[in-house]
Amino acid sequence: MPTAAPAPGYPVRFDVEYPEELSRLLIFVKWLFVLPVYIILALVGTAIPLAAFFTILVRGKYPEWWFKFVEEYFAFTERVIAYMFLLRDEYPALEKSQSITLEIDRPTKLNNFLPLVKWILAIPHFVILMALGFVLYAVILIAWFAILFTGKFPKGLFDFVVGVRRWNLRVSAYAFYLMTDEYPPFSLK
User: Fold this and answer.
1) pLDDT tens digit string along 86-135?
2) CA angle at 150 for the pair 146 and 153, rounded to the nearest 5°
3) Can you tell me the distance from the alpha carbon of 156 to that of 161, in angstroms, rounded to the nearest whole number?
4) pTM of the predicted model, to two decimals?
5) 126-130-51 Cα angle (round to 5)
6) Is 132 exposed, middle or buried (0-12, 13-18, 19+ CB in 10 A)?
7) d(CA 189, CA 176)
8) What phi, psi does 130 have (nearest 5°)?
9) Where do the DSSP E strands lie in the chain?
10) Which of 110, 16, 103 shows the shortest CA–CA distance to 68?
11) Buried b / exposed e along 90-123 (16+ C-beta atoms within 10 A)
């Protein structure tokens, strides 16, 4: 069951199914299991925005295969992050997950010149997301203890973590990966 309704009509939609029970033992080692994968994803993720920038600047649109690649990169990265952030116990699979959904609508045309200023337009989002990031890690620490003692991720905290990830994805898709020209909402929903 999804945790929260995504922003209606926004081209980037993300959700994580709430798990009824989480492993009390895995919380000790999850980060070790995904650290090598996360490092590789971070390295690949630094090259994608540069390629997207020049593609949109010159062509005004994503080639379909490139858009699909970036969408799959996003989806896999979010499966890894969901595992690291204790949201799911399933090791991140290379194929689509039933419990984690990410959909990005492919635009037919993008503004050629917006890539030059999108990152500036997104500064208010960056400031808020940076502050939320500190809260996010505190919430994950609290959830770690909750999972250790109860085997459950408190629902309100779970919704907050998923909401911050959703917001971050929308801003990343807009400002860095240039997958939409629609300005992201200031919302966890």
Assistant:
1) 999 999 888 887 799 999 999 988 888 888 899 999 999 999 999 999 99
2) 50
3) 9
4) 0.89
5) 45
6) middle
7) 21
8) -65, -45
9) 12-16, 100-104
10) 103
11) eebeeeebebbbbebeebeebeeebbeebbeebe
